[in-house]
Each structure stands twice: as C-alpha cells, then as structure tokens.
Amino acid sequence: MPRFYCPQPLIAGATVDLPESVAHHLHVVRMQAGDALTLFDGHGGQYDATLAEIGKRRASATIGAHDAREAELPYAVTLAQGLPEGSKMDWIIEKAVELGVARIEPLAARRSVVRLSGERAEKRHLHWEGVIVAASEQCGRNRLAGLAPVAEFGRWVTAPSPAPRILLSPRADTSLADWARAEGPQALTLMVGPEGGFTAEEEEAALAAGALALSVGPRVLRTETAALAALAMLGGLWNGM
After folding, report:
1. Residues 126 and 44 reside in one and the same domain
2. Angle at Cα 232 formed by Cα 229 and Cα 235, nearest 5°?
3. Alpha helices in 106-238 (DSSP H)
4. Cα maximum dimension of the chain
5. Which of 6, 49, 170, 221 is most buried, by CB atoms within 10 Å?
6. Alpha-helical runs (H) found in the chain
7. Total domains, the chain
8. Using one digit for the tens of pLDDT, what is the confidence trace for 74-130?
9. 72 assigned to some structural domain
C-alpha cells in the first residue's frame, strides 16, 4: 500500500489536498482516482485513504478510518552525528530513521570537512527533513524523527542532557553490548565522530561533561557504519527491532 506523509490535520470523512510532491509522485506512478493509499500526519497512527482526484501537480484524497499502528522504539535514541563529507549524512539519516532513531543532532566537529552556516545550513536542513520524511514513508513509521540545527561541538557538549550520552570510541574498554545488557532499555544519546573520529580533546571534553565511552567491537568502523551498528545492537538486545 503506497503511504505518504501529509502535514495537515487528517479527519475521517474529509477530503484533503495532498502536498504537490505527493501529487507528482502519484502522477508518475500512474495512480488513478479510486486507488487506495495510506496517509499519516506525523502525530501518531495512520489513515486509510482513497485517491479522489489526480493531476500532474494536484491531487486530493478522501480520508478513511484511523489506524493507531505505531512502529516506534520503546526507548528514545538521539543520534549526535559529527558531520561527514559528501552525501554520507543523507545515508546515515535515512538508515537511522529506518532503525528507529527519535532525533538527529548534526555536530560540527574539529575533523568535519563540511562546514555549514547561514543559507547553506538552512538548505541542507530542509533537504535532511525530506530524507526523514521519505525514510518514514518507506519504513512504516508514523512519527517523524526530530532534526536539530547543526551545532558546534564545543557548545553542544557542555549543554545539559536529559539522557546519558554514549561516546562511541574504538579505544573504550567497555562495549556497548555489555553496558546495554547491564543497564536495560532507556533513552540515550549516541555520539559518533566524523571521518577520523572526534579528536582527543573533544573526547576528553565529552567525558568531562559526563559522557560514557563505549565501543561497538574490536574493529574500527567508518562514521557511516558506527551509529547504525550501535542502533541495530541496541535493537537486538532491548527487543526494539
């Protein structure tokens, strides 16, 4: 069943105009009036719907019954990701959403090659929001992961955190798996460095601010692999997959 994010109030029995991007997609895949689809507004659950009208740039759908189905993890994981180069951040966000991450906080770290500010940062933020929407439509999530503006690491690490911060480091003596087995399911923030990792000074600052350094195994993982491996590990250990 095709499913789409519709950022407006959805009420059973109402007919709503769909976003232009959704209308274009429906036109490209040649859906017709009367075809069934699923809509969600990001506030929980989803709606059966029937395509009422379809054009090249405009489409409307009649909203049917609400289904309270959820696909969220029973614990909230925030991913604090050091900005990687190129399009790696798109891939990281897409896969992290599929694995259930609740929030993504991009960090400008010392070794981050990409530097974002001003209009460029705003455009990239909007692009990443689109990645979150597309990933949510594909994987069946009915709530959108939060996305914070890019933050400078030094300011971010000294800000108070409501949940434990886990610094993923290949130099850590304790593994994430051992910690997760002992501590059990809970909200947390995973900290992942950019290419080359966080610097020694950044790791020291994080530990001084209360972060806990843990490893994800004996191998050094690339930045685009580390968070996803950690999320999958927690999902397996905490029954969140």
Report:
1. no
2. 150
3. 118-139, 153-158, 176-183, 200-208, 223-237
4. 60
5. 49
6. 20-28, 88-98, 118-139, 153-158, 176-183, 200-208, 223-237
7. 2
8. 999 999 999 998 789 999 999 999 999 999 999 999 988 777 777 788 898 999 999
9. no
